[in-house]
Structure formats: structure tokens, C-alpha cells
Specification:
312 residues; 36% helix; binds adenosine-5'-diphosphate; nine-stranded mixed sheet; alpha/beta
């Protein structure tokens, strides 16, 4: 096994309620199902990488409240390392209020990142030794941007490879982009960042060129059930998704990114890693939920063995 990987990002408690229709302002609607569970892009990606077998260190920030226990209990149950989880009295643990309409599955979400949006300079600096031992850093844009910028700077100085999943999408400085080894936008994020609508393979290529001109070394644009467009300096191609019966595609991107960093840390090349990540994501979309839908390593290996001929 290679060096450990760091997943740096958000934790929020997902509070999901289903109802016959989404309320309009001022309306209260009686719902049918309520679920509370761990979430947040960072945490979902961390769980995916961990279950896929990575030596993964999760870095996030919680309040000191009941919702913090949701994170800590989940980490304990899954035997995840929680030694680099920060906590504060100054902010609440993040929460996402998710309303889902029963028939259409349309949703409306308010996400309050809370504590994980208050990661301080000192806290990031304290990760220096951990970074020195790590091979990869995977991060997203759901925590405060100042922390992401600082950590990526430190990672580059130490030769740690940086993967950025630019979600939720927001403007990214040229200096941050120039320090990214691999960026993994979905097609909507790629379009917002580059201004190029990724409607076909040629357009995905143009968007990849845009990122590479900014100094990003490799680009993976995920295209949902169509697969992922991968561009490196040497080669580019569309890797089709595995054909499966999707039931719940929320968190597909998180599954993909977690799988990707796990595979790269093991020493798989970028093409093999994309295939591994696609398999992990294909398994996750066949189940409801985010963290509970992340498959175990044995399932991923079995799935890949059974689908040998499908993806190059
Ligand atoms: P996001 O969740 O960020 O929008 P995507 O929808 O692009 O990300 O999905 C990420 C990856 O998950 C895809 O590249 C693909 O490998 C896999 N995936 C997503 N939806 C499906 C699906 N319906 N069937 C098989 N694989 C899927």
C-alpha cells in the first residue's frame, strides 16, 4: 500500500424529509418520511475512499453538539481515523435541510456548513506533519476557501499531489488552479468554470484545454451515466460509465472522487483509477443514500472482474 491520503472537506448532517409536494413560502406540508444521517461532500468522499480500502485521514471541523456525535459515531463504526477532526464551541456542526417531493424526486436544499466553514489558519498549519507523510490530498469547495488555498499551498510545497473536486462550484483563482494536479468537475461545473458548454466530446476536450492552459495537469469531467472524459497531456478519451440500473444518483460524484483517490494512492495509473472510480460510483447509484451506499472493497473488485470486457 502507498502513502496515506488526506480527504479535506465538509461534514454536515443531512436532514431529509419527503412530502407530497414542496412547500411554497409560508406553507407547512405534512411529510411522510424523515431521515437523519452523515453527509457533506468531504465526508462522503472520505467514506468512499476509506471503504474502498484507502489509508485515509479525514480532516473536517465540527461543533460541540449533538450533530458532531453523528460524525464521530459514524467514524467509529466504520473504523475511520478521527485524530484530525477539529472541533469548536464557536459554531454549530453543519447541517443540510433537504426536502424531497415524493413523486418527482425533485428537491430543495438549504445547506449551512457551520463549523466546517470556519477552519482557521492555525488549524491548517497544524496539518504540516500529516501532509509530509501523505501522497495525495483530495478536497472540494464546501469549506472556507481560505483553508483550501492554504492547504493546497502547503501540499504543493511538500510534493503532495492535489485533486480538486470543484463543488459546490464557485470561481477559482488562477493561482489555485495552477497548483492542481487533477480536477474533477461534473459537466455543469465544467461549463460554469470554463464558459464552454460540455455538450459533446469535442466540447469536453475544449474545456479540458481551458483547465490545462491554467496549469492543471489532468482533467476528468464526469458526465453522469455517459461516463467520464479524461484528458492528460499524452492522451484523452471518454471512458463510458458501466451500464447499471440507477436508483439514486445523489452522491455519484462523491463516490467517484473517493474511489479515484483510493486507486491513485495504491499506485494505479490514472486510466485504471478512473475505471475503478466509475465502478465504485456505478455500485453506489444502485442504492439509496450517500455514505451507506458506498461499496466495500470486495464488492468493487468483484464488480470489476464481472465487467472486465465493458470498459477499456
Ligand atoms: P455528480 O454527482 O457530481 O453530478 P456525475 O453525475 O457526473 O457526478 O457522476 C459521477 C460518475 O458516477 C460518472 O462519471 C459515472 O462514472 C458515475 N455515474 C453517475 N450516474 C451513473 C449512472 N446512472 N450509471 C452508472 N454510472 C453513473
Amino acid at each position: 500500500m502507498g502513502k496515506p491520503v488526506i480527504v479535506f472537506g465538509s461534514f454536515v448532517v443531512d436532514l431529509m424529509g419527503r412530502a407530497p409536494h414542496l412547500p411554497v413560502p409560508g406553507e407547512t406540508v405534512k411529510g411522510s418520511i424523515f431521515k437523519l444521517g452523515p453527509g457533506g461532500k468531504g465526508f462522503n468522499q472520505g467514506v468512499a475512499a476509506h471503504k474502498a480500502g484507502a489509508d485515509m485521514i479525514m480532516v473536517t471541523k465540527l461543533g460541540r453538539d449533538t450533530f458532531a456525535e453523528v460524525a464521530l459515531n459514524t467514524m467509529k463504526q466504520l473504523h475511520m481515523d478521527s485524530s484530525h477532526v477539529f472541533q469548536t464551541d464557536q459554531a454549530e456542526t453543519g447541517a443540510a435541510l433537504i426536502m424531497v417531493e415524493e413523486h418527482s424526486s425533485q428537491n430543495a436544499i438549504v445547506v449551512v456548513p457551520g463549523a466546517c466553514n470556519t477552519i482557521t489558519e492555525e488549524e491548517v498549519s497544524s496539518l504540516s506533519d500529516l501532509l509530509s507523510q501523505s501522497g495525495y490530498l483530495l478536497t472540494q469547495l464546501e469549506t472556507n476557501g481560505s483553508a483550501v488555498e492554504q492547504l493546497v499551498d502547503m501540499a504543493k510545497a511538500k510534493g503532495v499531489k492535489v485533486i480538486l473536486n470543484p463543488a459546490p462550484v464557485q470561481p477559482i483563482s488562477d493561482s489555485l488552479l495552477s497548483r492542481i494536479d487533477l480536477i474533477t468537475p461534473n459537466e455543469v461545473e465544467a461549463e460554469i468554470l470554463t464558459g464552454i458548454p460540455v455538450t459533446e466530446e469535442a466540447k469536453a476536450g475544449e474545456a479540458a484545454d481551458w483547465f490545462m492552459a491554467k496549469g492543471v495537469k489532468a482533467v476528468m469531467i464526469t458526465l453522469g451515466s455517459r461516463g467520464v472524459y479524461l484528458a492528460t497531456k499524452e492522451k484523452r478519451s471518454l471512458i463510458p460509465a458501466f451500464r447499471v440500473e440507477a436508483i439514486d444518483t445523489t452522491g455519484a460524484g462523491d463516490a467517484f472522487n473517493g474511489g479515484l483517490v483510493a486507486a491513485l494512492a495504491e499506485g494505479k495509473n490514472i486510466w485504471e483509477a478512473a475505471r475503478f472510480a466509475s465502478a465504485l460510483a456505478a455500485l453506489s447509484v444502485q442504492r439509496i443514500g450517500t455514505t451507506p451506499s458506498m461499496p466495500e472493497r470486495e464488492e468493487i473488485d468483484r464488480f470489476l472482474a464481472e465487467h472486465k470486457e465493458e470498459v477499456q
